[in-house]
Amino acid sequence: MSNDEVKHFLLIYDHHAGHLVETLEFGTDAAAAVESYQQVERKFRDSAWMDIVLVGSDSLDTIRITHANYFTAPSAALEDTLNRILAAAAATD
User: Fold this and answer.
1) For residue 27, what is the enclosing H or E element?
2) Ranges of each domain in the chain
3) Distance CA 77, CA 80 (A)
4) 70 DSSP assignment
5) DSSP 8-state code for residue 26
6) Cβ(37)–Cβ(53) under 8 Å?
7) Between 84 and 31, whose confidence is greater?
8) What is the CA radius of gyration of the chain?
9) Reduced to 3 DSSP states, what percent helix, strand and coil does the chain have, rounded to the nearest 5?
10) Superkingdom, according to UniProt (predicted)?
11) How far is 55 from 6, CA to CA, in rounded Å?
């Protein structure tokens, strides 16, 4: 993937609520993505429970995989992690 193909996504995650508040897509406009990121960071600068993440990728589907913790309910993410640990432990027995 070349830099021309990188799409920019801004993820706004509220740890208190336990879910993504907003996902913004900027296409290949890096300048607009960075400007929006800075605005949102300023808005939530005193809110330690908020994650503001600017990610570059080929698609939102890829980000759903690479940053699954933002798209999965906390209990489902924990269950998935435990299942992988148990499967790995069973494979070594």
Assistant:
1) none
2) 3-92
3) 5
4) G
5) -
6) no
7) 31
8) 16
9) 50, 25, 25
10) Bacteria
11) 9
pLDDT in the model for residue 31: 97
| For residue 10, pLDDT beyond 90 | yes
In this structure, the chain runs to a length of 93
Residues 42-69: tens digit of each pLDDT = 999 999 999 999 999 999 999 999 998 8
Q: What is the DSSP letter of 28?
A: T
Exposure letters 64-76 (e unless 16+ CB within 10 A, then b) = eeebeebbbeeee
Residue 68 phi, psi (nearest 5): -55, -30
Token pair belonging to 84: 């992988």
User: Cα–chain-centroid distance for residue 91?
Assistant: 30
Q: Which amino acid is at 44?
A: F
- 62-91 pLDDT, tens digit per residue, is 999 999 888 876 666 667 777 888 888 888
